[in-house]
Design brief:
alpha+beta, single chain, globular, Aminopeptidase, five-stranded mixed beta sheet
Length: about 160
């Protein structure tokens, strides 16, 4: 199947419908549609997020179809006057994988990160997600770390 021309771009405040389509893609890719689409906030909230300089939503589009995308956040550091960018979500539609879309999304983010003065982009991958691990190893340096989710409410005993 021939892939139509793909546009990679950062979303802005007027792109809420595109962001909603990206959330559907994330939900499908991560087999968690309820988390990504079940309780979506109002348009004004999403417009506000997309207007923030330190939040990046980048999509790969073929016309109006969202082929892939990522969401990343810029973090200011205390130990040095520098920033890091964390890729929180990245997915490509199953039919369009292995066509360079994820790499193009990260390269676009790399340009944004450089403009913003970030010194590194980092991302986590789950054990067993071999395609993601291979992609990230191709683009960066692997660090083996543990990830913990700490609830904001104290655990009941």
């Amino acid at each position: 199947m021939l892939l139509p021309p793909v546009t990679i771009r950062r979303l802005g405040p007027t792109d809420v419908p595109v962001l909603r389509r990206l959330n559907v893609l994330f939900g499908q890719a991560f087999a968690d549609l309820e988390s990504y689409t079940g309780h979506q906030p109002e348009d004004a909230y999403l417009e506000g997020l997309l207007a923030k300089e330190h939040i990046f939503a980048v999509v790969a589009l073929a016309g109006e179809e969202v082929l892939g995308g990522l969401v990343a956040y810029e973090l200011d550091k205390f130990e040095q006057a520098r920033r890091e960018v964390y890729i929180y979500d990245l997915a490509v539609h199953a039919e369009h994988r292995r066509q360079g879309i994820a790499t193009a999304l990260i390269e676009h983010l790399r340009g944004i990160a450089m403009e913003r003065g970030a010194w590194v982009i980092y991302v986590q991958a789950d054990y067993g997600d071999d395609p993601a691990i291979a992609l990230y190893e191709k683009l960066g340096t692997r660090e083996d770390v543990l990830h913990f989710d700490i609830a904001t409410a104290p655990a009941s005993r």
